[in-house]
Amino acid sequence: MRKIKCALIGSGNIGTDLMFKLLRSEVLEPVWMVGIDPNSDGLKRAKEKGLKVTHEGVDGLLPHVEEDCIQIAFDATSAYVHAENSRKLNELGVFMVDLTPAAIGPLCVPPVNLGDLAKATPMNVNMISCAGQATIPIVSAVGAVQTVEYAEIIASLSSKSIGPGTRANLDEFTFTTSNAIEKVGGAKKGKALAIINPADPPMIMRNTIYCEVDGEPDREAITKSVKEMIAQVQRYVPGYKLVNGPDFDGNRVAVFMEVAGLGDYLPTYAGNLDIMTAAAARTAEMFAERILDGSMELKKLEPAQ
Amino acid sequence: MTHEKAKSGMEGLKVKLHDMSLRDGMHAKREQIPVEMMVKIAKGLDAAGVPYMQVTHGAGLGGNSIQHGRALASNAEYISAVAEVVKQATISVLLIPGLGTMKELEEAFECGARSVHVATHCTEADTSPQHIAFARKLGMDASGFLMMSHLNSAEGLTEQALLMESYGANTVYVTDSAGAMLTHEVSHAISMMRDALKPETEIGFHGHHNLGLGIANSIAAIGAGATRIDASLAGLGAGAGNAPIEVLAAVCDRMEIETGSDTFALMDLAEDVVVPFMDHVVRADREALTLGFAGVYSTFLLPAKRAAERFGIPARDILVELGRKKMIGGQEDMIQDTAMTMARERGLLKESA
């Protein structure tokens, strides 16, 4: 079966973990990995796996896009360079999956809105953040039963799983995730908190989701909706697990989740990597299937005047 | 034979007191300090000559949340109200990256805050560069605040302090959030930092009184080179509270360490205003002592007591378990989670995930 050829931009934790997932895909084939440090572990791993690599950033990839038929690119660099990367690749007709907090394209949480996004034909979709991927499905599941007036999520991440880019730009993570809780999760107001915990052995990614609903919560319906949603996420992130809850206290619903990873690149504690890369891979697969069956056509975007 | 008393060698040192009653004290009041009370206490501190006072939600900027409790007023309202009445003191705020953002720091600045504690866990200083740099850009006094310092070695703390200094912090704190540090550990860490940091970078110490060492540790810090000490009226703060500022001022007076503050005025403010206002006597009770003993974030005290009541697990057991799991400041959600898991294991909570 024909596969859609992909490029990975960024050779850090996320890019490298994503490569391992794409190597297993039935419709995606990773062909290029782009870095900026010739000695990065990610580029070394990519070379071992038979990918072409460049350490000259996205400009090192551009001349090869057409000859290697790259149709989808994943950006796991930083919010500051993403817009430029996206513009250059869109001009060559490459569809962009954005794993930075830049969020210039529509926000995507697969079990919540991938179906809707597929009806449109964006050239760039944004994966929000690991915390967003881990918590927005729950907010949306509660919201499917009752209006969520306010949703607050707390993501606890192991120190070893957080790379230098995220660390230096925590505000972007906070803003992008808070915004997505409203835009995709459907909460009237959203707030995101992140905690980086250095415990050794590292703690598995934990997420707590608080929703304040309009009126007395319908306990039975909310519990059912949340559990159904968890099963949906488990289809692409098997380590997504309910630890406690849903707990009801007044109009407040609390759900305590854990995300264990598959251990593709970093060990299983780094569920935050997995949920991000698995969501990105799933999103790309859906668009790849549409490209393959001819229902979506990639057009070169005219350079802006 | 002479009868002269021994000297400490600290005579003549100058120390800046930084009051925490209106920030850490918020924890002890479940974030329920009315604006008028903040104004009253701030006026008293200002008149007593305390040079710095911190004013925000207990968890700082962005703190109003389910996770950290909702205060009676917004940070902007508290800061503006206090800024209107203080004459000499500098108003500071707390900012924990991951919770507070630069947007909120700018707002605090516009309301009158001129100093900030940018707080990270004691091994995660590299989550603070954008906030420290932004504070300095605004012209604020910026301290790097290494929380839960008992979980890092003196060498490790020094490394982290150097990072914060490199981002632009003009002060770096050893922050004993769990009130778990012993006196010789405070001295050792601060001496090492003093040797490594630029001479113009100040060192601060923020203590909690969970092991009864709030004052002793503060004095040890001064002896090792700290020039800024956080403290609060009657110790109003999380856990067994901070170092009581009126006691610290009195000890400094006796030791001839200059604080520039009026000790009697602080004693009056503590006794006449703050103590009658307390919801509970802030002291090293069984649970607060457990915090210091097990090395648990002091702010966990009251939420752990609430979870204990709701799920039927003794608060001390919950706190010890949180310490074992190495939970850190900001992970208040894990208190209920841990209590629920323990309750299920003990057959007190049916039904699970």
Word description of this protein:
The complex is a heterodimer of chains A (305) and B (353). By secondary structure, chain A is an alpha/beta fold. Chain A is built from 9 helices and 11 strands. The radius of gyration of chain A is 19 Å and the shape is globular. The mean pLDDT of chain A is 94. The termini of chain B are far apart. Chain B has 2 domains: 16-276, Aldolase class I (TIM Barrel); 286-345, Helicase, Ruva Protein, domain 3 (Orthogonal Bundle). With 353 residues, chain B is of the alpha/beta class. The relative contact order of chain B is 0.13. In chain B, strands 1-2-3-4-5-6-7-8 form an 8-stranded parallel barrel, surrounded by 6 helices. In chain B, strand 5 (141-147), helix 6 (154-167) and strand 6 form a beta-alpha-beta unit. Chain B has helices at 24-28, 35-47, 75-85, 102-111, 129-137, 154-167, 183-196, 214-224, 245-255, 263-277, 286-294, 301-311, 315-324, 333-345; strands spanning 16-19, 52-54, 90-95, 115-121, 141-147, 171-175, 202-206, 228-231. The chains are: A alpha/beta (305), B alpha/beta (353). At the A-B interface, strand 7, helix 6, helix 7, strand 8 and strand 9 of A face helix 5 and helix 14 of B. Chain B: Mn(2+) binds at residues 24, 206, 208. Chain B: InterPro entries: 2-IPM_HCS-like, 4OH_2_O-val_aldolase, Aldolase_TIM, DmpG_comm, DRE_TIM_HOA, PYR_CT. Chain B: Residues 15-267 form the Pyruvate carboxyltransferase domain.
Supply database-style keywords.
heterodimer; A: 305 residues; alpha/beta; Dihydrodipicolinate Reductase, domain 2; 6-stranded parallel sheet; 5-stranded mixed sheet; B: 353 residues; TIM Barrel; Helicase, Ruva Protein, domain 3; 8-stranded parallel β-barrel; 14 helices
